[in-house]
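idk why but the lab printer keeps eating my pages so im just putting this in chat instead. protein + flavin-adenine dinucleotide:
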Amino acid sequence: MSFDSCEMALLLDEYVTGLGIDVLLYTMGTDPILEGDKLKGVFLRNKSGEQAVLADMVIDCTGDGDIAARAGAPFRIGRENDGVFQPMTMMFKIGGLRPDYERDDLRSWYDALIERMPEKEILAEIPYDNPALITLPRRGEALIQWTHVKRCLGTDAEQLTAATFEGRRQVRRALECFKLVRDKLGDVYLLDLPAVIGVRETRRITGEYIISEEDVKNGVRQPDAVCRVHFGVDIHEPEQTRQTCWKHPGFDIPLRSLIPLKVENLMTAGRCISGSFAAHAAYRVTGDCLRMGEAAGSAAVAAIRAGQSIRSYAARRL
Ligand SMILES: Cc1cc2nc3c(=O)[nH]c(=O)nc-3n(C[C@H](O)[C@H](O)[C@H](O)COP(=O)(O)OP(=O)(O)OC[C@H]3O[C@@H](n4cnc5c(N)ncnc54)[C@H](O)[C@@H]3O)c2cc1C
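predcted complex ->
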């Protein structure tokens, strides 16, 4: 199912402005403020310059675990055996799609394309063989998930920049390919590019509990569960052109996976929590990241009100 991203932005603005919370846009959290192993807040940087925000608890929802890593929390990146991680994707929006294009037809255009152009040649330019055309609520518009940028790390500024250029280069090639399947798609054109390239995987901050691949396969229940993951394991292969997907019975994310080792007054939520390569490939989806954020916020408030560290609060819940 797709949604209109412009409508979503307006809706979320209305939602956050009604909650009595302070929001800063155009702001990066740069460095942790530490006293020994205790996190006391975060330095921010924006158009106003540098500011220090003090806090009883910091919840790192940067996707990459920027603050947790800089505070000294341990982390892993990529597969356990070789550290290789999933590729990035520059999604893009097209307009001009045939009005009768079937909503559930993700890839028949690609099958038509490889009948008209050797797949080897296409893969040499865009190294991914399971693209998806996702129709959007506005007529004639769709999102394309096709580009794959491999071996660029989202926590390295130079690699992130290079990946963005490469992602956009692949978009250009994709648009040329679409001309070969005009009969299937219509006269499609580039309507929009995202402000940032989509990063699937960077740091997984090691916490009190690491969700293992076995936990995923066995559908493990946890006494301190904050959410149950149902989305299947979805690995965009780091070194091949394919995607590996497998189902599981559903597994729990424990609160302990949101509590990094070695640093106090710190939590994580989202794709940077503590789990294995395989577990991350399932819980990284938006719905689960949202639930983790909500759970982290609630647990932080409860621990602070009870005058406990988040670590002992979580241990008592066991
Ligand atoms: C190409 C692609 C397609 C996907 N498709 C789907 C899909 O169809 N359905 C689905 O459910 N999931 C999908 N996912 C997965 C999902 O979108 C992400 O895994 C999920 O959004 C991660 O959530 P998060 O909150 O951890 O991080 P993010 O959503 O990345 O949010 C992190 C936020 O923190 C900000 N930030 C980062 N660093 C700092 C800093 N130092 N200071 C301040 N702010 C910072 C970022 O700008 C960002 O706004 C897709 C991912 C990719 C890459």
